[in-house]
Amino acid sequence: MKQRILPIFIPQYACPFNCIFCNQKIISGEKEEVSLDRIKRQIEQGLKINSDEHVELAYYGGNFTAIDIDFQKKLLELANSFKKIKSIRISTRPDCIDEERLRFLKLYNVKTIELGIQSMFDDVLNACARGHTAQHSKNAMAMIKKFGFLLGVQVMVGLPKSTLEKDIETAKILTSFSPDIARVYPTLVIEGTYLAKMYQRGEYEPLSLNEAVERCSQIKSIFIEKGVNVIRVGLQPTEEINYNAKVLAGPFHPSFGELVDSEIIFRKVVERLHGKKYSKILFMVHPKNYSKLVGQKKSNITRFKQLFSHAEIEVLCNSEQVGRIKIITESNETVVDISRL
Question: Which InterPro entries match (predicted)?
């Protein structure tokens, strides 16, 4: 039976530092303060929406393992008091993981621990006022795997002092610790953050949308190739981010994740067809992946026509092509696997 995640946001709760890019109350949309009454009400509401029998409750947005131990215990006991909740997921900082904390979490049905790593370069972490080092991240990942938890890693691209090479190397280093899941976020300039002040003073220039899509597509590909399940790319659109101008600058797009998948597909197709001339190229794709293949405003089709200028290009929807794209030319047939996007 498929497990559903029920997110509960505790924005910046117990965070010892104010990272320059972070304003979790705006990002999460959670306006109420953290309290057992609020969380119990939200769990009850969330369980009513869906009748799934297997639910994993996720405490997001805060620094869970730095919360007062008595309150941690109450939050975990509250989650475990609901029969439908079969496991718990938490997010925390790399420097707030140790063996004592992990032994405690094992007692309360915690299955997954997501680490806000962001970068594996200390100069980037220092520039962002993270308050931890890359070595903290290495130690935390190793311990989490040792104790048998599922390991999640969160990375950000385009941070101050970072580069394309550093962002790619960060992903490569992380895969060496065999994380189970990953999240990839482009850096956005959010209102009310120190990064916003830096941007307004001309001290920080965010990535363009095209740069962010290209960079995130490379990083997602690195994770996929190493068997890491990338569960999110880009911030999830919320009412505030979309409509109340909380993003001052940066590569925000309501369908950012699809743009990244579309770029990955484009590169996979070109790699498969590169070096030959064709008179006709026929793509057969499942309807749910049609938009990813053709690209936003058919941008991929435009690029295919530029690269294969002598070819007639046609796209057909075929429900049999689940998780793959069949490419038929006058000389052969080939398949591009997109099942892990």
Answer: ELP3, Elp3/MiaA/NifB-like_rSAM, Radical_SAM_C, rSAM, rSAM_horseshoe, rSAM_sf
122 in Cβ contact with 158 (< 8 Å): no
Contact yes or no for 34/74 (Cβ under 8 A): no
Q: Are 214 and 303 in contact (CB under 8 A)?
A: no
- Put simply, whether the predicted model's pTM sits higher than 0.85 gets the answer yes
- C-alpha closest to that of 219 among 235, 209, 208, 232: 232
CATH number corresponding to 4-254: 3.20.20.70
CATH assignment of 275-337, among 3.60.60.10, 3.40.50.1980, 3.40.630.30, 3.40.1260.20: 3.40.1260.20
CB 27 within 8 A of CB 241: yes
Burial of 201 (0-12, 13-18, 19+ CB in 10 A): exposed
The 10s digit of each residue's pLDDT in 121-135 is 999 999 999 999 999
CA angle, 162 then 168 then 171, to 5°: 110
Q: Is the pLDDT of residue 156 over 60?
A: yes
Q: Where are the alpha helices (DSSP H) in the chain?
A: 24-28, 36-49, 69-80, 99-106, 122-127, 134-146, 164-175, 194-200, 209-225, 239-243, 256-273, 290-294, 299-307
Nearest to 205 by CA among 164, 253, 239, 159: 159
242 pLDDT higher than 70: no
- Write the CA distances from 194 to 11, 292, 300, integer angstroms: 17, 35, 37
Q: Residue 240: which pLDDT band, with cuts at 50, 70 and 90?
A: very low
Sign of CA dihedral 260, 262, 267, 272: positive
Cβ proximity of 61 and 23 under 8 Å: no
Q: Round to whole Å and give the CA distance between 109 and 112.
A: 9
Between 11 and 145, residue with greater pLDDT: 145
For residue 145, give both structure tokens: 């795997």
- Residue pair 251/188 in contact (Cβ under 8 Å)? The answer is yes
